[in-house]
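Sat 14:20. Reprocessing the chain from the morning session after the first attempt stalled halfway. Input below, unchanged.
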Amino acid sequence: MSLCEMTFYSRILKMDTQVSVILPEKEQGIGMGGHDSDKTHDCPVLWLLHGRSDDHTIWMRRTSIERYAVPLGLAVVMPEVSYSRYLNMAYGPAYYDYMTQELPRLCRQVFPSFSLRREENFIAGLSMGGGGAMYIGLKHPENYSHIGMFSTGGAVPLEPLWRPGTSGGRLGEDIYGTGDLEALKDGPYDLFVLARKAWESGMTLPSIYHTMGTEDPRYPAAMAVKHFFEGLPGNPFHYEYHESPGSHEWAFWDQWIQGFLDRLNIREG
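Finished this time. Tokens:
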């Protein structure tokens, strides 16, 4: 694999930003194996999102995502979004527009081998990034065939479930325009509202892969998500939930990113 680090000026964010991109190659270094495909186009792409305290380098630094992507011939795009929750902030940059418009356009311009097919585009993330993956994936089911949600609690309406009585504070005001997170329930940021709208649209829906550690303080949020999606008639999102011992930690995410990749059905050879 090749690792590309790009710094560029974003017209939407109105500032320089960064993205890390893992690119598949047939020839690999010692101990890395390889993939057997001779394809030079239509490369499948995973848009992999970081959490609240992290940046675009974190998945490379804390997991073996590069090694897991090798046998799949899979490109992995890891953007930087600060603490925006991947939204157009009320008082800050328009990160949702950046993620859904400018970043995909730039990546496909620089890397023309990236597939445009929804069946070969996937979005996933941990913690804040899991909420971002759900928000983007549910609003754009035409663009992604799979969503991966790992250990998420910081998303509407989940956060008050695991730390009740806590307001969003200044960060909530910057992101949503209010620190009252309870008031956001049933509104445009509510993941359950977005899921129902996607379901009722009649569009082909992405499959949702959801994991949570049993010692994670956010466990009550996971139970609410599980209850909601398992309650939809016919399981339209092909929702599957997995849990195992673990807290909000990289050993857990390194384990379950592998399970998510196995669900993508893109193994080469």
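The longest helix spans residues 95-110.
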